[in-house]
Amino acid sequence: MWVQDEDEDTAAADSDEECAFSSEDEEDLQWHILEKQRDEANQRLSELEEASNQLLKEINVLEIQFQIERSCRESAEALALKVTKDNKVLKRKSQMLMPLIAELPENLPDVTFDPAVNGDEVDGDEVDGDKVDGAGGSSSEEMLLLESQAKITELQASVDGLLAEKLKLEQQVEDLTSEQTQLREQMILEQKAAQASETDLKMQVQLEQALQQISQLSTALCDIQLYYQDRLKQSQSAVEESSALSELQNLREQLEKSEEERKTLETQLSDANSLVTQLQEEGTPLYLKIRPYHNKITVHDMEYILEKSSDVLEIFSFKDFLKSRKKHGAKAADDLNKAAPLLDMKARAVDEMMERIKKGIVLRPMKRIQEDDSSWKDQKSDNRKSAILELKGMLDNMKRQHLRRVPSRRGTGRNVGEAELLMVLQRRRRAMGDNQEPPPSNQPQDVQPGLPCVPVAGDAPWAGESGSAPVLRRLKQNREKRDSRIRASALFISHQA
Questions:
Q1: Is the pLDDT of residue 313 over 50?
Q2: Are residues 217 and 333 both part of a single domain?
Q3: Residues 211 and 321 placed together within one structural domain of the fold
Q4: What gap in Å lies between CA 294 and CA 415, rounded to an integer?
């Protein structure tokens, strides 16, 4: 039995080692092991039942033998009582026959109790008479006594043997009962071990099922996470698309606003062009009026006037234009309201300048500090105010000194002609229109009768433009700088749009 248990343990260990090979064959092997253990347990139970049945049969046989022995003992005891009684009787008789011992024959040991052997003697005794009767009676009693003693010894020996056998049987019964109890305990332990192994196997199966469920749940969770990640990506893409659509809508709105601003700027430009043409028309009679005084103005004074006028025009034209262009969220009405005073200020400045030139005011040359373009960018409002104040101061000084004329430091040999002065003024007026084409000069204009026709800017080249006059070179440089600034501002505006 123990060998079988060890074999079963080794088989279970081998089966446990084989279960780790694959997850698919694991369950089959476990079920096979369980069936095998169940069959072995059933076989053990059947063997134990057979052994218990045999033990019960042997116990029944022993009980039968014990009953037989007990009956034999009882019969032996009864026979012993009878023999003891007979012995007592014989003892009395022997005591009674003690005086007759001397008369016993000498060959008493050779005497047998066989009547056939001693037949002659018996017959002789019978022939002899009374002697024979007395001797025969005593010998028969002795023979009975000896036989009874022999039987008693035999019975005692048989009783002793029966007692020894009984003791042996009792010992065997005790051994069998102890073996039976041991077998029962062993069976109980084996049943408990089998139940524990079955519970362990059930727990292992449940653990494997739980692990499989956990793996399935983990895969399901991974799938759910992937699904929600896809949903999140889709939602993010939808949000991005919606944001892109909103940005596109904003860009469209900005484009519409920029188109509206462009239209407003075009209208402002057309108004400025019309104002330029109007100023040109108004400037022709003024020019005719100031013609007698043009010889009084020196080249340096004219250059100073042109620079100041160009600064004022640039301040009022390009700076304000860039400001109005940068403000994308402003309305067209605000732009128009802002542009109107600027145009009025331009017109007033030009009118005042032309009136003072017409009155024959001689400008005294003044030292002016050259400033870089960066200073104009950093101090827009201060430069504007300082330029306006400086222009007012110059005009006041000219009012005080209009009766006396101070000769120029550079001499009188560098005066500017009428046509050149008019061209410069007209070119400055063109700068107000952001390099827009002025109206053609060859068209007929409504000129007052008696006044000569004045050529418009752009009709003829500069007088002596190819010459080496320093005034013309300076004017050319200023024009190139102005054109470069205009191009830079146009590029900046296009990038912002």
A1: no
A2: no
A3: no
A4: 9
Tokens of 33: 């092991």
Domain final residue, candidates 199, 221, 243 = 221
pLDDT digits over 355-383, tens only? Answer: 776 665 444 444 444 444 454 455 555 65
Q: Where are the alpha helices (DSSP H) in 359-497?
A: 373-378, 380-400, 418-432, 470-496
Higher pLDDT pick, 117 / 342? 342
Largest CA distance in the chain: 235
Tell me the C-alpha distance between 299 and 470, whole Å. Answer: 9
Residue numbers of the domain that contains 385: 297-434+453-496
Considering the domain architecture, whether residues 217 and 312 belong to the same structural domain is answered as no
Q: Which residue has the tokens 């440089």?
A: 477
The first and second tokens of residue 481, run together, are 């700088």
Buried b or exposed e, range 31-40, using 16+ CB within 10 angstroms? eebbeebeeb
Quick check: 8 and 33 in contact, CB under 8 A?
no
Three-state DSSP state, 114 = coil
Whether 402 maps to a domain, the answer reads yes
Q: Which residues contact 461 (CB under 8 A, 6 or more apart)?
A: none
* 105 and 11 within one domain: yes
Q: Are 244 and 238 in contact (CB under 8 A)?
A: no
Asked whether residue 267 is domain-assigned, the answer is: no
The whole-number average pLDDT for the span 397-416 is: 49
Which backbone phi and psi does 447 adopt, to 5 degrees? -110, 145
Check: pTM over 0.90? Answer yes or no.
no
40 and 8 in contact (C-beta within 8 Å)?
yes
Closest CA to 439 of 424, 450, 429, 452: 429
Tokens describing residue 168: 């042996």
- For tokens 């969220």, what's the residue? 329
* Alpha carbons 476 and 30: distance in angstroms, whole number: 107
Query: Reduced to 3 states, what is the DSSP secondary structure of residue 410?
Result: coil
Q: Rounded CA gap, 150 and 152, in Å?
A: 5
Q: What angle do CA 468, 470, 474 make, to 5 degrees?
A: 120
Does residue 324 form part of some domain?
Answer: yes
pLDDT at 17 over 70: no
Distance CA 477, CA 314 (A): 15
Q: Could you tell me if residue 282 is inside a domain? A: no
Count of domains for the chain: 2
In this structure, the answer to whether residues 166 and 303 fall within a common structural domain is no
- Looking from the CA of 389 toward its CB, the CA atoms found within 13 Å total 6
Which amino acid makes up residue 81?
L
Domain boundary (221, 251, 266) is at 221
- Whether residue 408 has pLDDT greater than 70: no
Same domain, 215 and 329: no
